[in-house]
């Protein structure tokens, strides 16, 4: 499949999501990296957004709760090129009632080549990258060409 480049602004749109038992860890991480997050557009699902906004004192656009469709909202933002980074602290020890939604979100992040941090260590690497503070280009598959090349059934 062919690729094309997509411009990513120096002001990133970042989704911050966490499973219930990882919310405190995400909030602590965001507090530690508050200065790095400042100036970027932050999004979060459900109560995570309210907790984050109160603790880090930065504006957070709040979506619906993950199990109620917040994961799909984030996935839609990715497909519409409205999201540049997904930070989703997963709880690998707990099954989630909306696991299919989570898997779909992770698949969409991979399909559109969005950086995705699933734990604190990865999130620290990503937020510390020089690319966080400047615009750059990322490669994405050229799905338009792929769709045009498919025979009509």
TrEMBL record:
<dbReference type="GO" id="GO:0008929">
    <property type="term" value="F:methylglyoxal synthase activity"/>
</dbReference>
<dbReference type="Pfam" id="PF02142">
    <property type="entry name" value="MGS"/>
</dbReference>
<feature type="domain" description="MGS-like">
    <location>
        <begin position="6"/>
        <end position="153"/>
    </location>
</feature>
<feature type="binding site">
    <location>
        <begin position="65"/>
        <end position="66"/>
    </location>
    <ligand>
        <name>substrate</name>
    </ligand>
</feature>
<feature type="active site" description="Proton donor/acceptor">
    <location>
        <position position="71"/>
    </location>
</feature>
<feature type="binding site">
    <location>
        <position position="19"/>
    </location>
    <ligand>
        <name>substrate</name>
    </ligand>
</feature>
<dbReference type="InterPro" id="IPR004363">
    <property type="entry name" value="Methylgl_synth"/>
</dbReference>
<comment type="similarity">
    <text>Belongs to the methylglyoxal synthase family.</text>
</comment>
<feature type="binding site">
    <location>
        <position position="23"/>
    </location>
    <ligand>
        <name>substrate</name>
    </ligand>
</feature>
<dbReference type="InterPro" id="IPR018148">
    <property type="entry name" value="Methylglyoxal_synth_AS"/>
</dbReference>
<dbReference type="InterPro" id="IPR011607">
    <property type="entry name" value="MGS-like_dom"/>
</dbReference>
<feature type="binding site">
    <location>
        <begin position="45"/>
        <end position="48"/>
    </location>
    <ligand>
        <name>substrate</name>
    </ligand>
</feature>
<feature type="binding site">
    <location>
        <position position="98"/>
    </location>
    <ligand>
        <name>substrate</name>
    </ligand>
</feature>
<dbReference type="GO" id="GO:0019242">
    <property type="term" value="P:methylglyoxal biosynthetic process"/>
</dbReference>
<dbReference type="GO" id="GO:0005829">
    <property type="term" value="C:cytosol"/>
</dbReference>
<protein>
    <recommendedName>
        <fullName>Methylglyoxal synthase</fullName>
        <ecNumber>4.2.3.3</ecNumber>
    </recommendedName>
</protein>
<dbReference type="InterPro" id="IPR036914">
    <property type="entry name" value="MGS-like_dom_sf"/>
</dbReference>
<comment type="function">
    <text>Catalyzes the formation of methylglyoxal from dihydroxyacetone phosphate.</text>
</comment>
<keyword id="KW-0456">Lyase</keyword>
């Amino acid at each position: 499949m062919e690729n094309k480049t997509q411009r990513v602004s120096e002001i990133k749109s970042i989704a911050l999501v966490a499973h219930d038992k990882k919310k405190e860890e995400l909030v602590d991480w965001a507090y530690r990296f508050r200065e790095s997050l400042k100036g970027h557009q932050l999004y979060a699902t459900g109560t995570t957004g309210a907790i984050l906004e109160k603790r880090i004192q930065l504006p957070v656009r709040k979506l619906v709760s993950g199990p109620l469709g917040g994961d799909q909202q984030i996935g839609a933002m990715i497909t519409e090129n409205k999201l540049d980074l997904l930070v989703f602290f997963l709880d690998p020890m707990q099954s989630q009632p909306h696991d299919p939604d989570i898997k779909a979100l992770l698949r969409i992040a991979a399909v559109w080549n969005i950086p995705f941090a699933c734990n604190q260590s990865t999130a620290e690497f990503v937020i510390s990258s020089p690319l966080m503070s400047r615009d750059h280009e990322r490669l994405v598959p050229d799905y338009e060409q792929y769709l045009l090349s498919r025979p009509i059934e």
